Amino acid sequence: MLTKLEEHLRAAGVDDLVLGVLSGNRDALRLYERLGYRPTWLYLSKFTGRD
């Protein structure tokens, strides 16, 4: 599905893609890296009432 979305976006003139994944979701990280995505930014969050 992601590959089809990338093809559609490329056809629409979109060259750069950024996606988000939770740091603990190692399966998703591996998948995205296999598809050519690389870590670029680090976000830190603080949510009230959660660790």
Automatic annotation (TrEMBL):
Transmembrane segments: none
InterPro entries assigned: Acyl_CoA_acyltransferase (IPR016181), GNAT_dom (IPR000182)
Residue span(s) of domain N-acetyltransferase: 1-51
Species per Swiss-Prot/TrEMBL record: Mycolicibacterium pallens
Protein's name according to its UniProt entry: GNAT family N-acetyltransferase
Protein origin, superkingdom: Bacteria
